[in-house]
């Protein structure tokens, strides 16, 4: 299933991994919201953790068709996410509905959320990013 990607951390425009992974591989990038998640600070990058009532701000990225498979593989590797899951993974790639910030249109997208063990550690000891916006963190 070729879904767009919701990015909320180092893959956003102006962040360190945007140009390395997305430049030349996208057809569209637009502001979007992931509802039902909060953001935690990680070691140089954030983690989205699914929590009712939270909202994470980011971008909805649509890949150009000819780059999709290569981009999916590269992002899984970057996010240390094994398709099918592995207990050592940092993230899990899940299908979630995000909302376009401009017009509120819901869109299914791939989202990298904290893997279960990581999410449990963050809930117990992590530093929450208030407002759910990595770009606006203080």
UniProtKB/TrEMBL annotation:
InterPro entries: AIG2-like_dom, GGCT-like, GGCT-like_sf. Coiled coil: none annotated. Residues 5-135 form the Gamma-glutamylcyclotransferase AIG2-like domain. This is Gamma-glutamylcyclotransferase AIG2-like domain-containing protein. It comes from Streptomyces actuosus. It holds the Pfam family GGACT.
